[in-house]
Amino acid sequence: MAPKGKNSFTLKTPKGTKDWSGPDALLRDNIFSTITNVFKRHGGMALDTPVFELREILAGKYGEDSKLIYDLQDQGGEICSLRYDLTVPFARWLAMNPDVRNIKRYHLAKVYRRDQPAMTKGRMREFYQCDFDIAGAKFDPMVADSEVLKIVTEVFEDLGWKGKYTIKVNHRKILDGLFEVCGVPQDKIRTISSAVDKLDKLTWEDVRKEMVDEKGLDGAVADSIQTYVVRKGGRDLLESLLTDEKLTANASAKAGLDDMALLLEYLEDFGVVDKISFDMSLARGLDYYTGLIYEVITEGSAPATATSAPEAQALQRSSKKDKKVDPDEDRSNDPSVGVGSVAAGGRYDDLVGMFSPKAQIPCVGVSFGVDRIFSITKARMQRESNANALRSSEVDVYVMAFGGKGFTGLLKERMQICRSLWEAGIKAEFSYKVKPKLPAQFKAAETNGIPFAVILGEDELAAGQVRVKEMGLPDGHPEKEGVLVDVDSLTTEIKQRLEKKASGADAPAEAPVDEPADLAQKVKDLL
Amino acid sequence: MAPKGKNSFTLKTPKGTKDWSGPDALLRDNIFSTITNVFKRHGGMALDTPVFELREILAGKYGEDSKLIYDLQDQGGEICSLRYDLTVPFARWLAMNPDVRNIKRYHLAKVYRRDQPAMTKGRMREFYQCDFDIAGAKFDPMVADSEVLKIVTEVFEDLGWKGKYTIKVNHRKILDGLFEVCGVPQDKIRTISSAVDKLDKLTWEDVRKEMVDEKGLDGAVADSIQTYVVRKGGRDLLESLLTDEKLTANASAKAGLDDMALLLEYLEDFGVVDKISFDMSLARGLDYYTGLIYEVITEGSAPATATSAPEAQALQRSSKKDKKVDPDEDRSNDPSVGVGSVAAGGRYDDLVGMFSPKAQIPCVGVSFGVDRIFSITKARMQRESNANALRSSEVDVYVMAFGGKGFTGLLKERMQICRSLWEAGIKAEFSYKVKPKLPAQFKAAETNGIPFAVILGEDELAAGQVRVKEMGLPDGHPEKEGVLVDVDSLTTEIKQRLEKKASGADAPAEAPVDEPADLAQKVKDLL
Questions:
Q1: Which of A152, A174, A374, B503 could form a disulfide with A256 if both were Cys (CB 3.0 to 4.6 A apart)?
Q2: What GO CC annotations are associated with the protein (chains A, B) (predicted)?
Q3: Are residues A480 and A340 located together in one domain of the fold?
């Protein structure tokens, strides 16, 4: 057995991981339910896979990133690794279940990457992904793809990011086609594609340098690529590309452009075409995409120099705390700036077939980066509200007691009142002391931001009554000292008051500054 | 990079793990929310810790079971292991957060044990635990302990297990005291205790044999232990023990008995004393318990010979499929029978102090074994309902189209109708084919047990109308063919019909046999 040495522990979580608790955990749970509700609205089935897979399942799926996979130790038996994403386990599940030939599935779970962490920007070694994917062999082109993008907009609308996000889209076949047209040798297409993908962080000059100096591309070919990849737009860009005879003569590019035309039409029907930016520099790193690709960016995603959004500034401050920032310094090359995309995905028609040649099921899907969404949402809440008073739990009622000389503490009575509240579905707590002091009980209620106190006194109890007090009422409010309520009607009374409070019917014109904020309500207001 | 060989994969999940999907995943999610709601009602704060911990954090906490811990491979950097339970990470978190001195926290997450799996009984290598713990230094005795047991009853009541479970309780101090009183040598107390703990599976004769033959205990001492550990009861047992002068003269036993008296009093106030069985054979394996201990058993927990409950029989059948069972065979010694306890816990006052001598925070908590609860609930549902029709997702409406010669498929109209349903919060789906066939659309709706179809036809649409049809209505029902509804009032109409259906106002006296069952409703009815 290992030694029990009392002081030999390093009290920390492993590098790149963290504990989630209190208001942060509550806010993140709210984000999870918002996303899950959208997924369910679109008919998603929940899938839960093991946190580790046989190592051979993951092998050969992630290109260079395979070195970031966490392996389990060989303790005799199977060789396993922690999952790197949720897409490969989904493809493995599809290959294992040949009776499932079309499915919409969602999966919210942690994934693992042995990467250099940057915690303040939501870049961690253990982090959550929320995935929605549609698999099906006999669908007509771009219909499911359009629904996935509709889902993306619903998630961000439901999160309250109205107008604060853009979905960049592109198509692997257009990219492959334009590289061919420009004269990129076949064996350089992938590496040139990944250079192009850096255009959201680097200038064209830097990217060109990488192509020509590092990757040996002909300068004229690079210049020809430039005429395409710096372009972004909507239907206008598509129409202009469709008149480009060199491009449309290429079969791959033509197929991609036709898909894109269909997509824009369907997104019109879904009413979300204004959220889309057709961005020819978007390439995405993963090997397995075969068609449409997309990435959602928001104010905090881009390098801070490209935006004056407060999010970006806040995030930037927190990650560069002790560094003097030169406003003229070009930091677009600074990897410490920007949280990156908040959601991304695309079509991957060949991945399932890698597991089982008989199971060629085309798929399209999206993955939401909840930790990044959390960072941005929290920064926004901190600007807009008093973040110090955020709650850790959602208790409605604190049951307390007071009395003069000979005060017994009324423990059993507090327990009985709590019991009746719990059994009526009301969230309640009480002090675990036999004779708690009144100020300590009030402090506990205030610290947790609990909206109501039920106060037990011996005289009132003898008359079958207790006092119900709404916490944080301003001086002079007629109910500042609470109201007496019959014990028999207590749960009904509390339920009515909670409903009234939730609907905001009784909200004071201006909340007094010392009133603890109600996170659940704030989140509702903000999201 | 690993080879991409197409046929070299073993398509399976690692040993002792499984995928969760479809109706099983939905039922398990329902169980999770039931449990989480109880935890929140009692003021629980959500805590989420990393799936792996520094190995030294786990070392020396689990006694002999430490060999079951999964280790991560040393890939350079820190040495980590997968968590074995949620209690040690909670204690580590408490020790790391010295400002938190009293807290109620809950945690639903997977834990990992390299044990011999027995999947059909919910014994797996990766499985969920749902934990609620109360930590606090200055609480009065047994108040928090009582609330934890109250929580246990609320969880099983809310799961619909009315009267089908028993909470066995005992106290480590009583056990330690009685072993002293009976003359067990100090160095044998732990091993004798673990022998006693097997009395739920073995006969006294077998346990005595283990004590005397294997563990070298004096036979007379064993016999003296027997006079205590075979006893179970309630207040009667407590009162009889309190008159046992030998026992009450032992300081440890006396302290335990006093706690137990207080506990029974408080549980009376919480109205749950009838769910408790004071069982002197309960010892619990883990090292870290220091006071009250408990374990929840149900019909499937015990060896099947001890009960004729259909659960136990069903579970037994599934685990012994191919074995002829001899009805006279004593299988109480057969470890393949019974799912074991469905929840367990106790008081552990010294665990946090093992991480930080300054942080001596007493704790008490409980852990629910969701996979076992799932197995039992599912077996019950399969007996009580048509399990074949259980749903995989919760879609409310399938939007379909039909038409005669020259039918265009009405794809864009189906998309627009879906859009308006989604934006009204209604769960809806449609076919991804441009020109889907009507029978295929009906089949998709039926297979998924979707309650309503919205049917688009060109003529009706021209008149601004669509047909709303409730699925599975019996022949002769006035609305069997659906009703025409204005497109403008479609979402309102659907919402009203969904509410009506949920409230059961329109339920036919006898559901037609071919109507797909609604799991959500079934779960609600059963839980």
A1: A174
A2: cytosol; mitochondrion
A3: no
Range of the domain at A438: 397-503
Out of A384, A409, A442, a domain closes at A384
Nearest chain A residue to B425 by CA distance is A41
Inspect the interface and report whether the beta carbons of B415 and A146 lie closer than 8 Å. yes
B71 vs A3, A73, A146: nearest CB? A73
Domain count, chain B: 2
Candidates A48, A80, A360, A396, partner chain B, best to mutate (most B CBs within 10 A): A48
Residue A389 located in a structural domain: no
B268 and B291 inside one domain = yes
Q: Name the minimum distance, in Å, from the CA of B67 to any CA of chain A.
A: 9
**Residue B29 among known ligand-binding residues:** no
As given in the structure block, the two tokens for residue B495 are 């919402």
Distance CA A15, CA A345 (A): 27
Query: In terms of domains, do B38 and B120 share one?
Result: yes
Task: Work out the number of other CB atoms within 10 angstroms of the CB of residue A476.
Answer: 6
* CATH code of the domain covering residue B147: 3.30.930.10
CB A392 within 8 A of CB A21: yes
- My answer on whether B270 and B354 are in the same domain is yes
B11 vs A356: CB contact, 8 Å cut-off?
yes
Residues A122 and A215 in one domain: yes
CA atoms in the 13 A half-sphere facing the CB of A118: 15
**Residue B9 domain flag:** no
CA distance B449 to chain A (A): 12
Among residues B372, B316, B513, B332, the alpha carbon closest in space to that of B31 is found at B372
Binding site annotation covers A85? yes
Q: Does residue B364 lie within any of the structural domains? A: yes
Q: Specify whether B81 is located in the same domain as B191.
A: yes
| Residues A2, A372: Cα–Cα separation, whole Å | 38
B377 plus B421 within the same structural domain:
no
What ipTM does the predicted assembly reach? 0.83
> In this complex, which of A93, A427, A433 lies closest to B19 when CB atoms are compared?
A93
Residue B134, classified by CB atoms within 10 Å of its CB into exposed (0-12), middle (13-18) or buried (19+), is buried
Contact B53 A14 (CB under 8 A): yes
Query: What tens-digit pLDDT sequence spans chain A (527 residues)?
Result: 334 444 456 899 999 999 999 999 999 999 999 999 999 999 999 999 999 999 999 988 887 788 899 999 999 889 999 999 999 999 999 999 988 888 999 999 999 999 877 776 667 899 999 999 999 988 999 999 999 999 999 999 999 898 889 999 999 999 999 999 999 999 999 889 989 988 988 899 999 999 999 999 999 999 999 999 999 999 999 999 999 999 999 999 999 999 999 999 999 999 999 999 999 999 987 778 999 999 999 876 655 443 333 333 333 333 333 333 333 333 333 444 456 889 999 999 999 998 888 888 999 999 999 988 998 888 887 877 644 446 778 899 999 999 888 899 999 999 999 999 999 999 999 999 999 999 999 999 998 899 999 999 999 999 999 999 999 999 999 999 999 999 999 999 999 999 998 887 544 444 333 333 343 344 344 44
| Report field, pTM of the whole predicted structure over 0.80 | yes
Residues of B in contact with A11 (CB under 8 A): 92, 95-96, 355-356
Q: Does residue B113 have a known ligand-binding role?
A: yes
Residue B164: count of CB within 10 angstroms of its CB: 15
Residue at which a domain ends, from A384, A410, A442:
A384
Q: Which residues of A touch B115 (CB under 8 A)?
A: none
Question: In this structure, are B346 and B423 located in the same domain?
Answer: no
Does the annotation list B391 as a binding residue? no
Question: What is each CA distance from B81 to B67, B70, B137, in whole angstroms?
Answer: 12, 6, 30
Answer for the pair B250, B180: CB distance below 8 angstroms, yes or no.
yes
In a domain, B527, yes or no: no
* Subunit contact A138:B26, Cβ cutoff 8 A: no
Of B12, B44, B393, which is closest to A44 when you measure between CB atoms? B393
